[in-house]
């Protein structure tokens, strides 16, 4: 047994220190980035990704976020016909096709590729540390030489490097920070997310790869911190749940004789809810590592996206970063004991 004694940090442990700058207004800053991937594909946009969860990784979300230049990783449970139709109809340069490790996921990808171009692939498993997963990444790379491949999830530099060397362009970082994740509770395994981003970004950038910070953002300031820590992309589940564009069931209540939307069910992809839905229950050898919650109904996602983009822009003016790419260079984190005044809840 070994103990690492250097302290690892979460979003809640730090704040970003303001810096002198010549920037006058938040309208002067550019929240878009251009990436050139090893596969030769270029992409420009606001590097935020809706998580490939049932509720948030919807086709409706993909269309809505695209209007902000942001991306969506579609969940992997769409029927093949629907995917063919969607990829054939829409501009999908902001859309990831998601797959897990099953043969049927791969067959689905092959079937859709016969009808439409798929140039972004999200390949993810709860635990990206197995040899089998590294092997799978390299097979998917061989089969899709021209696609951008995002793979994960991992939380350390060594595994980030291994997945990039196996052919991934973007490494998805995060084990246990998610809003509906119970991995840390069930297994005791995890890594504080801010430190995970810093360490994985360092490893990825050394190999000309990128990282996507996945999970744990609860407010726009957390997204700002993720970019500051070196995240090239940030993936959101919970912050995008509860909107009209989601695939969750909206719950209604009678209020003064009127039927009003009040909430939506949101659940982890390894929760009992998801396993019941797709695998007919939780297999005997495993426990669920996700929970099911009710989130408030929040209307169209446009408002939330404006809050997020506004928060990121404002952070950039505080630290004097004209472009999103400059943010990590201009970020100094200060460690804090407390960061919010909660007197009014
Ligand atoms: P959030 O933005 O809600 O904090 O985190 C979203 C991320 O949580 C997802 O992208 C995914 O990586 C992770 N996640 C989703 N469902 C589950 C689950 O059931 N269990 C665990 N451990 N993680 C989950």
Automatic annotation (TrEMBL):
Domain IMP dehydrogenase/GMP reductase positions: 9-336
Sites where the protein binds NADP(+): 211-234
Annotated catalysed reactions: IMP + NH4(+) + NADP(+) = GMP + NADPH + 2 H(+)
E.C. numbers: 1.7.1.7
CDD domains noted in UniProt: IMPDH (cd00381)
Keyword Metal-binding: yes
Signal sequence interval, chain numbering: none
Keywords on record: Metal-binding, NADP, Oxidoreductase, Potassium
The keyword Metal-binding appears for this protein: yes
Pfam family, one: IMPDH
GO molecular function, one term: metal ion binding
GO cellular component, one term: GMP reductase complex
Domain of life of the source: Bacteria
Family: Belongs to the IMPDH/GMPR family. GuaC type 1 subfamily.
Subunit annotation: Homotetramer.
Protein name from the UniProt record: GMP reductase
Organism per entry: Faunimonas pinastri
UniProt gene name: guaC
